[in-house]
Amino acid sequence: MPGKILVIDDEKDMLVLITRILSGKTPHAIDTTDDPLRVPDLLKKNRYDVILTDLKMPQLNGIEVLEMVKEHDASTAVIIMTAYGTIESAIEATRKGAFDYITKPFRKERILHVVDQALKWRHMQKENLYLREQLEGKPLFPALIGNSIAMERLKSQIDRVAKTAATVLITGESGTGKELVARAIHSHSLRKDKAFIPIDCSTIPESIIESELFGHVKGSFTGALKDKKGLVEEANGGTLFLDEIGDLNPTMQVKLLRLLQEGEYKVIGSNTIRKADIRFIAATNQNLQERIKKGEFREDLFYRLNVINLHLPSIRQRPEDIPILARHFLEKYSVLYNKNIKGLSRNALEYLSRREWPGNVRELENVMERGVIMALGDILEVGDLSTPDSGSSPPSLATMPTEDIFSLPFKEAKDRLMEEFQTQYITKVLEKHSGNVSQAAKESGLKRQYLHRLIRDHKVESKTFRKSEPIE
Ligand SMILES: Nc1ncnc2c1ncn2[C@@H]1O[C@H](COP(=O)(O)OP(=O)(O)OP(=O)(O)O)[C@@H](O)[C@H]1O
Predict the structure, then answer these.
(1) Do residues 276 and 187 share a domain?
(2) Confidence of residue 336 (pLDDT cuts 50, 70, 90)
(3) More confident residue, 420 or 67
(4) Are residues 299 and 194 both part of a single domain?
(5) CATH code of the domain in which 225 resides
(6) What is an example of a GO molecular function annotated in this UniProt entry (predicted)?
(7) 191 backbone dihedrals φ, ψ, rounded to 5°
């Protein structure tokens, strides 16, 4: 069973010897260090399955290393290496949670056996943790907020897809979380300890995208002043996320196809064929089938990318997630901006649920961020959230597309404008008077009963504008 292993010993010869023994048949990923003080940093950057540590080292002893590791991740197996003279301490270490100990000088078979056992134990720990998390209902993908049926289905798809090596095409409207999902797939895959490299094909100019992806050698074109490593090389062993894949130019489509099919590519200015071991995830908000029909996107590339398709629902398709998303962003930005905001008022929540979200979660996040910045009290109110161009109110007369209006029959155009005007007028005046119909009627010079009728006819909820108690 292959694993990620760290060997710590202040004697460099010992590190070489153990690495050689462990690099036999099983392809472990092995890190070594002769300085135990580097352990905290290494633990931050890597997830080790097994750590072999010497017991007696000048900077830090093996028991201290053990405690550090266990505090970081209790399911990492720690094996203590010790000379006969200190065997008592090694036994003590196993009481403190070490997996086992090995006495020096050791036989090759003994090391291989203990490491193998430790990896199996670690594997079981991970499986148990996974099952426990599922049983306890702990979210599998904590970064992906939403518990609507659509989101739950998506999370279960991600979970199944993550463990495979298959190429994934993520589709969905802008701001639905495509990059977030790509990251979730990577972080639940076997490549999670390797790099996740995103590249946005729509923002990188055509002239440099090849060099960005594949790199170049010095002097291969004007301006290539030194060798440049490409993102493909950086992603080797890990995941490459190709965002807005529909914008990739035809020449690059061919080169990408070769990389996908054969795992091969060439650095600009070099004739050597290089190999890459990469998991590909692509995303688009375009209809690629349409682009194929127009001859703008290669069909063979589409089929290579679309091995598994994950389609992300828009907010329209999961409005029940709006409250949980809003609360999530409220907490996030309250912490970020050092504000003590306890929750949203009922009106604010109604407002968020009522308005349209063409920019999906990204737009909701922006509105909440702005709201947190603007809020004066400890409860977020409607007034903190609405922006002049937010979709909450009907389009203003000034911004209505005139061609549309003038292409309608006169009466219909007049009715439409009248309808827009009345809804907008009522909304504004009620907003100004916090939903108090008598005061709003007085200011607008209308009879209270008439204003009531207009409110009913135009389906404006006057109570939405009332200052109310927080709901959380
Ligand atoms: N389900 C979600 N839970 C929490 N945050 C989310 C969710 N979906 C999206 N977001 C947030 O919304 C923002 C936009 O998400 P992301 O960039 O992944 O969208 P996208 O679909 O890739 O957008 P685009 O197509 O415009 O590139 C990010 O800040 C992301 O963290």
Answers:
(1) yes
(2) confident
(3) 67
(4) yes
(5) 3.40.50.300
(6) ATP binding
(7) -95, 10
**Does the beta carbon of 150 sit less than 6 angstroms from any atom of ligand 1?**
no
- Residue 44 sits in a domain whose CATH number is 3.40.50.2300
What is the best residue among 179, 180, 241, 245 to mutate for testing ligand 1's pocket, by most ligand atoms within 8 Å of CB?
180
Q: Is the minimum distance from the CB of 146 to ligand 1 under 6 angstroms?
A: yes
- 3-state SS string for 352-366: HHHCCCCCHHHHHHH
Chain segment 345-383, per-residue pLDDT in tens: 998 999 999 889 989 999 999 999 989 988 888 999 988
Same domain, 332 and 352: yes
CA-to-CA distance for 24 and 42, rounded, in angstroms? 24
The pick from 181, 199, 322, 361 for probing ligand 1's pocket by mutation, whose C-beta has the most ligand atoms within 8 angstroms, reads: 361
Last residue of a domain, one of 68, 100, 132: 132
User: What residue owns the CA closest to ligand 1's atom 26?
Assistant: 174
> For ligand 1, atom 9, which residue shows the shortest CA distance?
177
Asked if residue 365 has its Cβ within 6 Å of ligand 1, the reply is: yes
**Buried/exposed 192-221: b ≥16 CB within 10 Å, e otherwise:** eebebbbbebeebeeeebbbbbbbbeeebe
Structural domain contains residue 143: no
Residues 258 and 110 in one domain: no
CB distance 176 to ligand 1 below 6 Å: yes
Structural domain boundaries enclosing 461 = 395-472
ipTM over 0.95: yes
Give the domain-ending residue among 290, 311, 332.
311
Task: Report the residue count for the chain.
Answer: 472
Distance separating alpha carbons of residues 101 and 52, to the nearest angstrom: 9
Q: Is residue 138 one of the residues assigned to a domain?
A: no
If one counts every other C-beta atom within 10 angstroms of the C-beta of residue 132, the result is 10
> Which atom belonging to ligand 1 lies closest to the Cα atom of 328?
4
Within a 10 A sphere around the Cβ of 319, how many other Cβ atoms?
14
Evaluate whether residue 114 is within a structural domain: yes
Instruction: Give me the percent of the chain exceeding a pLDDT of 70.
Output: 88
Nearest CA to ligand 1 atom 24: 174
Percent of the chain topping pLDDT 90: 50
* Cβ–Cβ under 8 Å, residues 70 and 140: no
Q: How far is the CA of 362 from the centre of ligand 1 (A)?
A: 6
User: How many domains is the chain built from?
Assistant: 4
How do residues 208-220 score in pLDDT, each as one tens digit? Answer: 899 999 999 998 8
Confidence bin at 399 (pLDDT 50/70/90)? very low
Distance from residue 155's CA to the centre of ligand 1 (Å): 15
> Which of 202, 322, 336, 365 for mutating ligand 1's site (highest number of atoms within 8 Å of CB)?
365
